[in-house]
């Protein structure tokens, strides 16, 4: 199991500061106060989709706790982005696959901000393998630990602090619906995340807590060139979508905003699909 400060296999999670071209995280429109007074925990918020979500939440009035593994420079940049929107931000580094870390992180957020209104389970990892026999036991356990166990651990820690009106938004993937020949373990965790979302919604809806998910298609983030896609796949990344290109993080973040705010007050157990036009069932 990886510990704080260690890098995963393939150099994950990867530095956004070193990525060219840079992913687009900037919100595309002025805020309208849809998250005014709220406090959000966003995992994997040092870069990629998580950074774009943190930036958009801040623009809409939320204070943000940035949870991440070890990319401290990227996380500090996200802190600056949130504070640049006039909101408070803290960054907490550690392994979300460690139940103890999740408990300590939630306690720190509660102590710093006094409340938790939104939990965004976005952190994840993926590793390409051509054959199922290439997936090591260590990689299989690690991928499940990071991608789905972390969601259980963080939600368990946050649950006592979530009041009626709170929202949980999980990040699943188009690979859950389409499958992925090179990402057998990753796509399997995304199937588990979708089932977790639907089941947790049933569990919490009576308490006034909504649980939904977002299933992005191919999005340009450090996850892909840092190990999430083979060189051949990376060369044509996103070209197979109907739009013929990969998406940008700021094209996904509005789905996370919608599901977190009162605009989605009659939605729970649902999945949104910012995926470049790919038609899926479910």
UniProtKB/TrEMBL annotation:
Please tell me whether the keyword Oxidoreductase is annotated for this protein.
yes
Residue segments, region Disordered: 1-31, 222-249
Q: What UniProt keywords are attached to this protein's entry?
A: Oxidoreductase
Record's Pfam families? adh_short_C2
Top EC class for this record: oxidoreductase
Q: Which CDD domains match?
A: SDR_c1
Q: Name one GO molecular function term.
A: 3-oxoacyl-[acyl-carrier-protein] reductase (NADPH) activity
UniProt-listed InterPro entries: NAD(P)-bd_dom_sf, Sc_DH/Rdtase_CS, SDR_fam
EC number(s) from the headed UniProt entry: 1.1.1.100
Q: Which PROSITE patterns does UniProt cross-reference here?
A: ADH_SHORT
Biased composition, class Basic and acidic residues, residue ranges: 1-27
State the reactions this protein catalyses.
Answer: 2,5-dichlorocyclohexa-2,5-dien-1,4-diol + NAD(+) = 2,5-dichlorohydroquinone + NADH + H(+)
Homology family: Belongs to the short-chain dehydrogenases/reductases (SDR) family.
Q: Which PANTHER family does the annotation name? A: NADPH-DEPENDENT ALDEHYDE REDUCTASE 1, CHLOROPLASTIC, NADPH-DEPENDENT ALDEHYDE REDUCTASE-LIKE PROTEIN, CHLOROPLASTIC-RELATED
What name does UniProt use for this protein?
3-oxoacyl-(Acyl-carrier-protein) reductase
**Species whose genome carries this gene:** Sphingobium chlorophenolicum L-1
């Amino acid at each position: 199991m990886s510990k704080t400060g260690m890098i995963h296999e393939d150099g994950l999670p990867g530095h956004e500061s070193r990525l060219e071209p840079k992913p687009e995280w900037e919100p595309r429109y002025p805020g309208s106060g849809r998250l005014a007074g709220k406090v959000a925990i966003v995992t994997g918020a040092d870069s990629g989709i998580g950074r774009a979500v943190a930036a958009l939440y801040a623009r809409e009035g939320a204070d943000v706790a940035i949870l991440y593994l070890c990319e401290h420079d990227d996380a500090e940049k996200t802190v600056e982005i949130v504070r640049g929107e006039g909101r408070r931000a803290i960054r907490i580094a550690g392994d979300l696959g460690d139940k103890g870390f999740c408990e300590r992180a939630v306690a720190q957020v509660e102590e710093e901000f006094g409340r938790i209104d939104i939990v965004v389970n976005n952190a994840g990892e993926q590793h390409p393998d051509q054959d199922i026999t290439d997936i090591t036991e260590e990689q299989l356990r690690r991928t499940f630990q990071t991608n789905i166990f972390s969601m259980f651990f963080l939600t368990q820690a946050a649950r006592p602090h979530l009041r009626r009106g709170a929202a949980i938004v999980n990040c699943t993937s188009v690979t859950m619906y389409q499958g992925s020949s090179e990402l057998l373990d990753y796509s399997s965790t995304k199937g588990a995340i979708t089932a977790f979302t639907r089941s947790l919604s049933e569990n919490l809806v009576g308490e006034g807590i909504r649980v939904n998910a977002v299933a992005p298609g191919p999005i340009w983030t450090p996850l892909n060139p840092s190990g999430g896609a083979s060189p051949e796949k990376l060369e044509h990344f996103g070209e197979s979508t109907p739009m013929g290109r990969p998406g940008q993080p700021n094209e996904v973040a509005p789905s996370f905003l919608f599901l977190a705010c009162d605009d989605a007050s009659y939605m729970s157990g649902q999945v949104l699909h910012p995926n470049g036009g790919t038609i899926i069932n479910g």
